[in-house]
Amino acid sequence: MAKKKVFSPTLTFLRAVPSVLDALSSGRASSLNSTLALLLGVLTTASAAFSARLWALATAVVASGLLALIAGKLKEWLFVSAAALAFATSVSAPAVLGVLPAKGAPAAVFIARAVTSASLFTAFYSLTGWRGFVEGLRRLGALGYLGDELAFTLRYIPLFTWKTLRLLSAREARLFTSSRHLTWRVVNSVAGSILAGAYAKAYWARLAYTARSFSLEGNRKTARVRFSMWDVFLTALSAGLLVILVGVL
Predict the structure, then answer these.
(1) Which of 5, 111, 143, 211 could make an S-S bridge to 88, C-beta 3.0–4.6 Å?
(2) pTM, full prediction
(3) What is the count of structural domains for the chain?
(4) Nearest alpha-carbon partner for 140 in 42, 227, 206
């Protein structure tokens, strides 16, 4: 029973990850330029990661929530934002409690940066979906085969999360103590091996895909890029966020 209490938060979180990622990956705005959305998402996320203005970060979180609401994936966006808040708070807890001296930005700014960055990228990803994300990477072409391997790796994460659950359950049965320290060591070792396995699976999947289509270069040849009102709205919103995040206003 004690071991079950130790593992239950982790298992609950891992059970929710695949469904959330699948929901975020499904669908996309048909008129949305995926490459533009990907670039805007990266720019705003990077700007939020270095911004020190709390009001600007709060505004960015509200804007990202609006995008997630428009995409119909507000629940999944809230899950990711809450997870980012929990992880950032736990990491910065020693500085918040005064146990360790805070160096650089205050702990509140660090937490706000982490939450805002996760919220923004999740919002843009909810708009593009999985297919739009992959299409954006391939249109950029700057990453070469790394972009394809990254795309395949992300696709296999939900599948390997379920494998993580099974491995955790198996290792839980072999533990004879309820120590949280030992539990997290087990979780970290399992997560690391699973992520490495996901990348290896993605690598072989990409090779199989290449063997059947002879080349991935042909898939990067797309029709003439067109811009819609969706793109104009997203660009204007991102420009406004960049202005307040970098401190122009």
Answers:
(1) 111
(2) 0.67
(3) 2
(4) 42
